[in-house]
Amino acid sequence: MTASSVEMSPERGAVTLLPQVTCPHCWERFPPEQMLWISEHVDLLGDPMLGGDHQRRFLPSRFTIGGDSVDAKGMVCTRLACPRCHLPVPRTLLELEPLFASILGTPSSGKSYFLASMTWQLRTMLATHFATAFTDVDTSSNRSLNLYEESLFLNEKSEEIVPLGDLIEKTQLQGELYNTVSYGRQSVSYPRPFLFGLRPQAHHPSAAKVGQLSRVLCVYDNAGEHFRPDQDTTASPVTRHLARSQLLFFVFDPTQDPRVRGLCRRGDRAGNAGVGKLSRQETVLNEAAARVRRFAGLSSSAKLDRPLIVVLSKSDEWGHLLNGTGAAEPWARLSEDLYAVHTDAILQHSQAIRRLMLRHCPEIVSAAEDFASEVTYIAVSALGDDVELDPKTNLMGIRPSRIRPRWATVPMIYGLSRVLPGLVQRTRRTSS
Ligand SMILES: Nc1nc2c(ncn2[C@@H]2O[C@H](COP(=O)(O)OP(=O)(O)O)[C@@H](O)[C@H]2O)c(=O)[nH]1
Ligand SMILES: [Mg+2]
Ligand SMILES: [Zn+2]
Q1: C-alpha–C-alpha distance, residues 176 and 165, integer Å
Q2: Is 273 in the pocket of ligand 1 (CB under 6 A)?
């Protein structure tokens, strides 16, 4: 396969390959003809970089008429891998540029719940409001996230009160988040990206520019543990992609802040969401800022030139302090089936939160505004207002049928409107 060759795909006709492919794991860029293939034959189990239970990677010399490769034992192969780290690269990345988005925050700040609610709702919201398809790029990359989504939104115990901490199992999160690669004696852990195709649909006003506007959205859920100052060694470059990310989401959990906690709806009840140890959350942001500056080669006073979105989680607990802003989602209708992001509504909401934060946790505002020249504050609840106390266990829980995320898609859709304005439009008008 060469850079200029054309591949046929049944649903879209001829597609053009990009001259350079970006690996979503190690972020190396390389021409598509250097791509490795993943062998299929059982005798070819074992890859020197990935270990004994991974199929060997190879540079093919034989192809089928359909353009798939053939491994050393004669099996047809369809899956591709990065020539540097050997991790799988979905084919969509041969056609579409990646768009990197990183979520960071302290442990238990609500990153995984937010991510699951966001992606579940983006699947419908982007299609119904923004004429954009949002899909998993393949069946394997987003497996653990699909499980979180199912646990929140397709839970079998939909009418029983499920303790909040049990909706997404913590243990399930750990090993699934990283891939380990050996470079000789050095092993490196890469955060596992969640990969989504973003493409304008036929009725999108810019549908003709599908090639320019489509992306593979690569989202990283950074376990907060890795933002301690000593944690980003070469062996675990967990935060290097921060420097490459066009969109940064910092999840701040007001219920973990002792000064806000007393004002929360369910404040100090046992089993409450924020019951983990109270932590200084701005240190994570300061550390992330230092790393981004380091990897991007910026001076220590330079500000990030991309939008930083501070996502304030668990707003079901503290949203009443905002006196009503954020009631309706900030979309303005442009036509029957097309909406735009209503920028004034976002701005107003952001300013209300900023005032609240300045009153209660000013160091978060300073840390964020010191890091990026443009900071937007958005309050979300991954679960909604029906969190309740289970009288039997005295733990906070929710009946899965009553999960109604609040503003969970707003940070990403707003972010997309900033970095891909041709795909997601913005307006200052209210609905037409
Ligand atoms: N009340 C409330 N609790 C939440 C919400 N999102 C998460 N939580 C709670 O916060 C805990 C930590 O969330 P999680 O997403 O696992 O945090 P992570 O470590 O940042 O990924 C969960 O066990 C939930 O109990 C929310 O929207 N509202
Ligand atoms: Mg998590
Ligand atoms: Zn790679």
Answers
A1: 18
A2: yes
Task: Round to whole Å and give the CA distance between 94 and 85.
Answer: 17
CA torsion through residues 271, 277, 377, 137, sign: negative
Taking the C-alpha atoms of residue 256 and residue 273, their distance in angstroms, rounded to an integer, is 9
User: Measured between alpha carbons, how far is 377 from 361 in angstroms, rounded to an integer?
Assistant: 13
pLDDT value at 63 more than 80: yes
One-letter amino acid of 79: R
Compute, in angstroms, the gap from residue 314 CA to the centroid of ligand 2. Answer: 14
Task: Show the beta-strand stretches assigned E in 305-411.
Answer: 308-312, 331-335, 338-342, 375-379, 388-390, 395-398
Question: How far is the centre of ligand 1, averaged over its atoms, from the C-alpha of 355 (Å)?
Answer: 24
Letter string b/e over residues 63-82, b meaning 16 or more CB atoms within 10 A of that residue's CB: eeeeebbbbeeebebebbbb
Q: Which residues neighbour 301 within 8 Å (Cβ) at sequence distance 6 or greater?
A: none
Q: Could you tell me the pLDDT band of residue 275, with boundaries at 50, 70 and 90? A: very low
Q: What is the pLDDT of residues 201-236, one digit of tens each?
A: 999 999 999 989 999 999 998 776 666 666 656 555
Nearest CA to ligand 1 atom 26: 314
Return the bridge partners of 14, or none.
8
The closest of 12, 423, 32, 425 to 198, measured between CA atoms, is 423
Residue 21, beta-bridge partner list:
30
